């Protein structure tokens, strides 16, 4: 199973985060499956790759450490594909979503740590 993680600290009030994340994920070809406000899950839209390569995105927003101007979130992306190659489909999608989060005009990334 391929699995990639990243931790972000962004300068944005928590009230504005959810809609911005939905827009970013949809622009990267993901459909929202589940959303509780502090936890979001999305799945890659089927049709481009085999079923085992479809990527799932999980975003956990840490409300306990949120301030009025910044917050932290954890990004986890995974699929059933064995990561036999360094540049596999899950890694490509991880790079796409991470870049979209880092480069969006909705907020400023203060810290980003890939795991």
Q: How would you describe what is shown here?
A:
With 115 residues, this protein is an alpha+beta fold. It has one domain (2-114): TATA-Binding Protein (2-Layer Sandwich). Helices cover 23% and strands 39% of the residues. The chain is built from two helices and six strands. The protein has a six-stranded antiparallel sheet with strand order 2-3-4-5-1-6, covered by helices on one side. The chain is globular, with a radius of gyration of 14 Å. It starts with a strand and ends with a strand.
Give the tags:
115 residues; alpha+beta; TATA-Binding Protein; 6-stranded antiparallel β-sheet; 2 helices; 6 strands; 23% helix
Alpha carbon gyration radius: 14 Å
Q: Tally the structural domains.
A: 1
Order of helices and strands: EHEEEEHE
Number of strands: 6
Distance between the termini: 15 Å
Mean pLDDT level: 90
Q: Please outline the major beta sheet.
A: 6 strands, antiparallel
Strand content: 35-45%
Low-confidence stretches: none
In CATH's first tier, which class applies? Answer: Alpha Beta
The CATH architecture name reads: 2-Layer Sandwich
Could you state the oligomeric state of the chains shown? Answer: single chain
Could you name the CATH homologous superfamily?
Answer: Kinase associated domain 1, KA1
